[in-house]
From TrEMBL:
Keywords: Cytoplasm, RNA-binding, Transcription, Transcription antitermination, Transcription regulation, Transcription termination
CDD domains for this protein: KH-II_NusA_rpt1, KH-II_NusA_rpt2
Function noted in UniProt: Participates in both transcription termination and antitermination.
Organism lineage string: Bacteria, Bacillati, Cyanobacteriota, Cyanophyceae, Oscillatoriophycideae
Encoding gene, per UniProt annotation: nusA
Region of interest (Disordered), ranges: 393-415
PROSITE patterns for the chain: KH_TYPE_1 (PS50084)
The UniProt record lists the keyword Transcription regulation: yes
Name used for this protein in its record: Transcription termination/antitermination protein NusA
Length: 415
């Protein structure tokens, strides 16, 4: 069998494997794919008048011989026919029987179609080099995808490299001890009080591993995701790690809509152990545990509250630090509640620009209206809710009535 010589092939594969941190097998596979594209370019050049379909060369393959430092091109699955009309996909029975008398019509064979050393021209070599570079990039991206896909939703250590537009490009340590991988921290995922200077290190939440071959970092990380808060508490509170205390829900506003409002998080915790105070466990002695989390998040305010299966108690706790007088579940089906507080607690319950009540609503899943207990008229509010409910029923009935003529028309047509 003929072979195109590639002097230094073995050393080249080892060098690329080391430089790009790829297994030798992956480098060889990329090289085979690139050489096949080079052969395709060679064929298109020497047969310029021939129209090749997109899948014309699908039955061709390249065989690397690393020890002999060369490659061969093979045409596989050539069908044995009486008289071949396409030399790349068929072969005549007569030609095959000269070397294999037992061959029959309909069988398939593999044929060595390696070009001569001097025929594999300059353009084919350039094409091979370009495709190899692309294939190696694809292999690297695939390796990153395979390594980090299972680590989505975890926290990694990252180092600031540079800025691109409004994003911060960071170096993330590989899980398996490989060289660092670039990750993007978009503007919306940054914390307003973070100082992203060169080589500064941060804990980041791996939000997504991008699939495909698009350019740019494949890892999208976050400093504003609620998952980062959950990780930090789990890391600082042994009771959470031991599943004695569980985090039920988290509501975070790391990038408030206004510059006058700082980042804030509310976290609901619970336990089945009567001897354990879940809130106290998260705060720690003299606030030691929660302070570590606050420092990592650059002074972000964090409210740790006790979860309760009773919505009234849960909503009242969620509005901490405000003191709540009463919680009225005015429409449980639509999860609407009126929270009654004293006049001096109104601003505290609502929060600066509505942040406190907004986070409490996200945490509990209830629509919360803060009311002044001194001015609240329970009977009037109940009547108002009843009227709204009646209006919804009337709307449903009207909608059904409006559909009746259409149903009659359909019935008439069917008859």
């Amino acid at each position: 069998m003929s072979m195109v010589s590639l002097p230094g092939l073995k050393d080249m594969i080892e060098s690329i494997s080391t430089e790009r941190n790829l297994p030798k097998q992956a480098v060889e596979e990329a090289l085979r794919e690139a050489l096949l594209k080079g052969y395709e370019r060679y064929r298109r050049t020497v047969q310029i008048d021939t129209q090749f379909t997109e899948d014309y060369f699908d039955n061709f393959d390249v065989e690397l011989d690393v020890e002999e430092e060369g490659f061969r091109v093979l045409a596989k699955n050539l069908t044995i026919v009486e008289q071949a009309s396409n030399q790349d996909h068929q072969i005549s029975l007569k030609d095959v029987q000269e070397v294999a008398p037992e061959a029959e019509l309909g069988d398939t064979v593999t044929l060595d179609v390696t070009p001569e050393q001097n025929e594999f021209g300059r353009m084919a070599a350039i094409q091979t080099k370009q495709v190899l570079a692309q294939k190696l990039r694809d292999k690297q991206r695939k390796m990153i995808q395979d390594e980090f896909a299972e680590h989505e939703g975890t926290v990694l250590q990252a180092r600031v490299l540079r800025f691109e537009r409004q994003s911060v490009i960071m170096a993330v340590s590989s899980v398996y001890g490989q060289p660092e991988v670039e990750a993007e921290l978009p503007k919306r995922e940054q914390l307003p009080k973070d100082n992203y200077r060169a080589n500064a290190t941060f804990r980041v939440y791996l939000k997504r591993v991008s699939q495909g071959s698009q350019r740019g970092p494949q890892l999208i990380v976050s400093r504003s995701d609620a998952g980062l808060v959950v990780y930090l508490f789990a890391n600082e509170v042994p009771e959470i790690e031991d599943e004695v205390v569980r985090i039920v829900a988290v509501a975070r506003e790391a990038n408030p809509p206004s510059n006058y409002v700082g980042p804030r998080t509310k976290i609901a915790v619970d336990t089945l152990d009567r001897d354990v105070d879940p809130v106290g466990a998260c705060i720690g002695a003299r606030g030691s545990r929660i302070q570590v989390v606050v420092n990592e998040l650059r002074g972000e305010k964090i409210d740790v509250i006790r979860w309760s299966p009773d919505p009234s108690i849960y909503i009242a706790n969620a509005l901490s630090p405000a003191r709540v007088d009463e919680v009225r579940l005015v429409n449980p089906e639509e999860r609407r509640a009126h929270v009654l507080v004293a006049e001096d607690q109104l601003s505290l319950a609502i929060g600066k620009e509505g942040q406190n009540v907004r986070l409490a609503a996200r945490l509990t899943g209830w629509k919360i209206d803060i009311k002044d207990v001194a001015k609240y008229d329970a009977a009037a509010e109940d009547e108002k809710v009843a009227q709204e409910f009646q209006g919804q029923l009337t709307g449903e009935v009207s909608e059904e009535e409006s559909l009746e003529p259409e149903a009659t028309e359909v019935s008439e047509i069917q008859v």
